[in-house]
Amino acid sequence: MGAYARAVRLGIVGGGLLVLGGVAVASGLLPLDEAAAIGERVWPILLFAVAVTVVAELADHAGLFAAIAERLARLARGRGWALWVLVVLLAVACTVFLSLDTTAVLLTPVVVLLARHHGYPPLPFALTTVWLANTASLLLPVSNLTNLLAEHALGFSDPGRFAALMVAPAVVAIVVPSAIIAVVFRREIGTRYTPAESEPPRDPVTFRAAAVVVGLLLPLLVSGIPVWIPATGAAVVLLAVFAVRQRESVRLGLVPWGLLVFASGLFLVVGAGHAIGLTDAVAAIAGGGDSPDALLRLSASGAAAANAVNNLPAYLALEPIADSPARIAALLVGVNAGALITPWASLAVLLWHQRLTSLGVEMPWRRYVLLGLVAAPVTVVLATLAVAATASAS
Question: What are the residues facing 79 on neighbouring strands?
Fold first, then answer.
């Protein structure tokens, strides 16, 4: 019921945005050719988001994430620090290749149950997943919808070029919040445990199919092929397997309808905003130029906008003034790695908190905000300086 209610609320907001966007097009405020250009730009992004969500959901139903987590617990050999570091690596890999929502929504319950299974308080591990879901989503285009938009704005067709631009800030944005968690929760993490017995997958056929499909998908996402193609193919294969083996898992709820409606309406509304002068307004706030000070001003503006509204509209609003690779990188640092303070800074945070609540894990928003007020500014500043250093060296 909680997931359904969230989808309905998001759909209602998105429906309102779609209506506003439709009014803007019908009134001529947003010219029809510009609306068509927006649609042509975003349909591959939204199709990828749907397909990778379906793949991740079905892989989770097959027990793939749980099996990986249990193997990490055995690999850590009873050492809490080793287990936590392996969870960090898993969260980073999941975010980089399967997007931040997969980490926040699907990996969080696995990590919480893993921690409990081995006698650890779940909060340090849960906070690790949600922070890294946002901050580790800088490296590849597929890691975040904002990155896919930025890849289009950059004109890059090779994910390697995007990764080369973002690797320095991405490393900083992974290390800094991880270090903060390690310091804050050092007593909880730094104990030993006895590795517990793992349970076999419910259906070995769907488990093996999910493992093979995900294993083949990951390299294809960085091959240079438009990402919606391999993601859609992977979703079709897994849907076919589950339709035969676990038909109850194949349902319309696998599709993130609320996100689709919300994003579609948002693109039109922000497009209309730029048509009536939004670009000039944000340029006055975020400035211009590629100097370290200018990049810090832009990333800080992105982080402030993300925490005030949400990271996706924040990116869309500021993108027109991010007129160089370094400025786009700084903007991504702000809207992705800076979205750690308010609950609504990214949809992933809200979905993560709901999963925690359903698992009986208490994380008061006041504590979340206070920790974010420490982590977000430090992460954004250091990662932006990494962008500046990379830009000056190239």
Answer: 192
Q: For the segment 241-262, what is each residue's pLDDT rounded down to a tens digit?
A: 999 999 998 998 888 887 788 7
Low-confidence ranges of the chain (pLDDT < 50): 1-4
What CA–CA distance (Å, rounded) separates 378 from 31?
41
pLDDT at 3: 46
Domain ranges of the chain: 2-393
Residue 77 gets which letter from DSSP?
T
Long-range pairs, 278-286, Cβ under 8 A, ≥24:
278/317, 279/320, 279/321, 282/317, 282/318, 282/320, 282/321, 283/320, 283/321, 286/318, 286/321
Compute the distance between CA of residue 147 and CA of residue 143 in angstroms, rounded to an integer: 7
Give me the DSSP letters along 306-340: HHHT-HHHHHHHHGGG--SHHHHHHHHIIIIITTT
CA distance 99 to 228: 13
Q: Is the dihedral of CA 352, 340, 143, 51 positive or negative?
A: positive
Confirm if 131 and 86 have CB atoms less than 8 A apart.
no
Whole-number pLDDT of residue 8:
58
Nearby residues of 29 by Cβ (< 8 Å), 6 or more positions away? 23, 272, 275, 276
Distance of CA 29 to the CA centre of its chain: 32
d(CA 259, CA 48): 12
pTM for this predicted structure: 0.86
* Cα–Cα distance measured from residue 38 to residue 136, given in angstroms and rounded to the nearest whole number: 27
